[in-house]
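Hey, resending since the last one bounced:
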Amino acid sequence: MSVITTANAQFVKNNNLSKVEFYVQKNELDSAKKYIDIASKESQFINDAKTWFYKSIIYKDLYKLKEKELLISQLRDEVTTSLQQLLLVDTNKTYQSQAESLIKYISSTYYNDAARALTVPDLEVAKINFEFYHTLTSLSSMDKKVVQENIIQFKFALATAIGTIDEETALDSTQKEAIKTIFLEILAIDNQNASAHYNLSILYYNEGVDLANNIDYDSDFDKLLEVQDKIASLFSNALPYMLKAYQLDYRKEDALEGLKSIYRGLNDEEKSAYYENELKSIKK
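The structure tokens again:
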């Protein structure tokens, strides 16, 4: 008489997601990657939150193992894509806490590498990493004030980097416009940012001064008027930002000097004299 016995062995299901789990448990990341790449394209798993959770952690671990020192990492970018998909399909929020931890870690690497890339000639690398940081943090419950402060800090650093690409050569028009755009972006986030107001004003004012210093008085009359109108427009653009910097009590002596000079450039000698006297009074 034969006896049938039962065993406690657990068998691996014959599907690609089960294979992923099997290789993750064995810490065989390359094999796990092979099967998660297949599973994430299969109709039975494409809307399964577990698929994108596993893909996020597998690619994160591979990134740490293979590409952590690279400024641009395809493995890390795939983590971002997987996290976006995870948050989309995880309607029950099964993996919410794990996703938050992954976002916090991966976004920090993007931010750090964005800052690190500011020292290399190609600033596009810094911008790309920063955009990934911005994308990820917008998906998370991270402190929005901290995120905004990080964004502003990066944008100031980017403006500085653009302004010092070639210290022996004056900024060209493209660089000037790029820096202006950055300061305007900062003010869109924080309209009370005194440094952005001040520096934006200086950009407009200096551009007007450069034009004034290089007027070709041999030009025809209409051309000369056109240049003078452009100079006046630049000084007018500079004025509200310098006034705001002064109101915010930022670099008070420099702001007063700026207002004195801007009004003089606009041929408003009365207001120029007023701010000159203010400047003298605080220097006593």
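Residues 12-103 form one domain.

Sorry for the duplicate.
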